[in-house]
């Protein structure tokens, strides 16, 4: 079994979900008292969020690259960045280490391709929805047309993530707002919707809608288990 390096804390709420999902899935596959071999480096999200707001992506890349290197030095065989947004600096992180980085958009894109999804909605932070690092990867590598909500809806999605979900606040009014955004994306021809922020599944899941949702936290965690158990 390979050792998984988790670069987490962005936020700790979703990192806790990663830890549980990875261990539950690995135990489901292996049985007995098996659990995952994990080394975790969890950042102080307060500092990360301030740098995000200031668009200090270079400094963020330096911080997370150093933390990723510490995972490699601790014996990790590959790295999982436990957030969608900070995959913006994944190329820098990957360049700083000699072990693989399991990209969340690649894991998600593979599931979308398997499901023959050609047009998909994307919910996430404003950085993930509005910048190109995530959408273009899905388009270029998997041929998927990615649709984002309108400006008002993007503001709602982003603010709920930072003001509520990252603080562990689950608000039914916010859930209803998210579901309306999902309905509008479906009305625009989206065959499914990516929950492209690792906190969103804390608020919205498949039980809340008939529209197909792609939970990137779960997808990424299961891909980590598959890689950890893959034969050399």
Automatic annotation (TrEMBL):
Please indicate if the UniProt record lists Nucleotidyltransferase as a keyword: no
Q: Which InterPro entries match?
A: Asp/Glu/hydantoin_racemase, Asp/Glu_race, Asp/Glu_racemase_AS_1, Asp/Glu_racemase_AS_2, Asp_race
In terms of Pfam families, this protein maps to: Asp_Glu_race
Signal sequence span is none
Q: Could you tell me the keywords of this UniProt record?
A: Isomerase
Do the record's keywords include Isomerase?
yes
Q: Report the superkingdom from the record.
A: Bacteria
Record PANTHER family: ASPARTATE-GLUTAMATE RACEMASE FAMILY, GLUTAMATE RACEMASE
What family does the entry list?
A: Belongs to the aspartate/glutamate racemases family.
Q: What is this protein called?
A: Aspartate/glutamate racemase family protein
């Amino acid at each position: 079994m390979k050792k998984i390096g988790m670069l987490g804390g962005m936020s700790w709420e979703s990192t806790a979900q990663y830890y549980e999902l990875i261990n539950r899935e690995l135990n489901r596959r292996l049985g007995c008292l098996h659990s995952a071999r994990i080394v975790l480096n969890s950042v102080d999200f307060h500092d990360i969020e301030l740098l995000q707001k200031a668009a200090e992506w270079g400094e963020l890349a330096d911080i997370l690259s150093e933390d990723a290197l510490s995972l490699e030095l601790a014996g990790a065989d590959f790295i999982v960045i436990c957030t969608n947004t900070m995959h913006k600096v994944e190329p820098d992180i990957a360049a700083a280490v000699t072990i693989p980085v399991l990209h969340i958009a690649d894991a998600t894109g593979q599931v979308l391709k398997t499901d023959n999804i050609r047009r998909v909605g994307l919910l996430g932070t404003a950085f993930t929805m509005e910048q190109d690092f995530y959408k273009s990867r899905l388009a270029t590598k998997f041929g998927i047309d990615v649709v984002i909500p309108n400006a008002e809806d993007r503001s709602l999605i982003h603010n709920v993530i930072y003001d509520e979900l990252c603080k562990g606040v689950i608000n039914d009014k916010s859930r209803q707002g998210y579901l309306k955004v999902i309905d509008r994306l479906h009305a625009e021809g989206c065959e499914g919707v990516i929950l492209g922020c690792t906190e969103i599944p804390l608020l919205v899941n498949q039980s809340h809608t008939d529209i197909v949702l792609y939970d990137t936290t779960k997808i990424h965690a299961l891909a980590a288990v598959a890689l950890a158990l893959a034969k050399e």
